[in-house]
Amino acid sequence: MRIVPEELYQKSYDIVKDIDEYDLYFLALHFQTGHKIWTGDKKLRKGLKAKGLFICVSTEELKAKRYKKKQ
């Protein structure tokens, strides 16, 4: 049973291959669910922002209740 379709893994890999290819699973799950990625990984956050993807949320943001899922 697969939760995330193969094409989302490929799309995710293409985006994160020059950031950290092991993060492709988190990105693929984001594309599947639409939920932000909760991470303290500054390299991932910075790399995704540089590509126009503002999809990460930090623990501090969660604590401040600033996180909202985009509809």
From TrEMBL:
Domain of life of the native organism: Bacteria
Xref: Pfam families: PIN_2
InterPro entries: PIN-like_dom_sf (IPR029060), PIN_dom (IPR002716)
Domain PIN positions: 5-51
Protein name in the entry: PIN domain-containing protein
Organism of derivation: Capnocytophaga haemolytica
